[in-house]
Amino acid sequence: MSIEHAYFGRLEIGTLRDTDVIRQRTAQFEGEKVDIRLWAGPPAEPDTGKLDESAVRLTDLAALDATARAALRE
User: Fold this and answer.
1) SS3 47
2) What's the structural domain count of the chain?
3) Prediction pTM value
4) Which of 1, 15, 43, 45 has the fewest Cβ atoms within 10 Å of its own Cβ atom?
5) Can you tell me whether residue 15 is helix, strand or coil?
6) How far is CA 64 from each of CA 5, 18, 22, rounded to the nearest angstrom?
7) For residue 56, which of 22, 10, 8, 19 has the smallest C-alpha distance?
């Protein structure tokens, strides 16, 4: 089974028996390569709303980085 998402593209989820990477890519952030992995696990398929939220975060890595750094300082 697979699902299609506007940002992530086709995600193959039908053969998952354990939690596994269903999409992987490399992005550039501040001159460095960053590995991005999307994980999913059985039995439920990824929620479209959560995929949309993740896509928004990944389109602005600088904001995601700032949020993570702020959380670490708390």
Assistant:
1) coil
2) 1
3) 0.71
4) 43
5) coil
6) 21, 28, 21
7) 8
- How far is it between the farthest Cα atoms of the chain? 41
Range of the domain at 25: 2-73
Place of tokens 């959560």: 50
Contact 40, 13 (CB under 8 A): yes
Nearest to residue 58, comparing CAs of 5, 20, 3?
A: 5
Q: What is the DSSP string of 50-62?
A: HHHHHHHHHH-HH
Distance CA 50, CA 40 (A): 12
- The full DSSP string for 1-24 is -EEEETTTEEEE-TT-SS-EEEEE
Can you give the length of the chain in residues? 74
